[in-house]
Description:
Layout: H1 3-25, E1 51-52, E2 56-64, E3 71-81, E4 86-88, E5 96-99, E6 104-112, E7 117-128, E8 134-146, E9 149-157, E10 163-171, E11 177-186, E12 190-194, H2 198-202, E13 207-208, E14 213-222, H3 224-227, H4 230-234, E15 238-247, E16 253-257, E17 261-262, E18 271-277, E19 281-283, E20 288-296, E21 302-308, E22 314-317, E23 322-327, E24 332-341, E25 345-349, E26 352-356, E27 361-365, E28 369-374
Parallel strand pairs: 1-8, 19-28
Antiparallel strand pairs: 2-6, 3-4, 3-5, 3-7, 7-8, 9-10, 10-14, 11-13, 11-15, 12-14, 15-16, 15-17, 18-20, 20-24, 21-23, 21-26, 22-24, 25-28, 26-27
Amino acid sequence: xxxxxxxxxxxxxxxxxxxxxxxxxxxxxxxxxxxxxxxxxxxxxxxxxxxxxxxxxxxxxxxxxxxxxxxxxxxxxxxxxxxxxxxxxxxxxxxxxxxxxxxxxxxxxxxxxxxxxxxxxxxxxxxxxxxxxxxxxxxxxxxxxxxxxxxxxxxxxxxxxxxxxxxxxxxxxxxxxxxxxxxxxxxxxxxxxxxxxxxxxxxxxxxxxxxxxxxxxxxxxxxxxxxxxxxxxxxxxxxxxxxxxxxxxxxxxxxxxxxxxxxxxxxxxxxxxxxxxxxxxxxxxxxxxxxxxxxxxxxxxxxxxxxxxxxxxxxxxxxxxxxxxxxxxxxxxxxxxxxxxxxxxxxxxxxxxxxxxxxxxxxxxxxxxxxxxxxxxxxxxx
Length: 382
């Protein structure tokens, strides 16, 4: 060995010692792996680990010719067996003409997991030897697909035909996840407004720790072309579906879409009465105006008469028994009315009666709204 070669080996030894020290100081290195010059990210897991619904299952398949002979007509097939179906995940279904000794056939498969429960990856290889003998073998890899999120929904039906949806999403895995997107895809009859500001509500980074629950709120409003069709909106139960996208702590993305969310349709009866305009505060014994909207929710034409009945504290100003005329199915009518209150405090507006002269049927509306009645002047001290 000459001097120059000895110097090179000494330098290599110094670099090797430096690398080993760096690996020992690296917190991501598996203990003892520095002797193999491998970090944690380069070591192969002994099992598949946790796979969750909505994530993408990826696998690298390699078939290696360990013999000293050339084999022919090699066909590699990868199937994924679930409880309900068998899926072919192979990129190509055509056979490779030959495979020389110490050579490989490689394939990478991907599958978006859409079922929970037991999954079995079946890898099958068939080939022909030099003597013409056809051989075949299989390997099975079994793993479980778990549910990552628990989703609960609540609906609130407003008097203005708006629907509020509250979605509660809980992380039921053992690792934190980054909530990249939680959105609501509304049905064709609604426009949606998200009432979630991620930065102000959940902090700058939208992380969901294990077993933590987060609430999301959405407001659905009927589109203008459907808003006036009371009968149509009344029967709408399908609201839309949630689209949830998250990332795990290693950056792997998962996505889930719920089935169509359905609410319990509000029961308006044949005639619906709602308020379009009403003041919050009124003065004692001074007239104030409200505007009522009457909608025919039945499938027949009505001939309506409006009666106004006074209560102990609220009195109607105007003629009772007014003829409103005929109202077609799904049609609406706005009526301005005048009232006054003789009692201070929070008072309930009641006493409206609608009578359909065709069927001689009367619809009663009490406690339709509340107003705060205040005294506009202060009594002088005695």
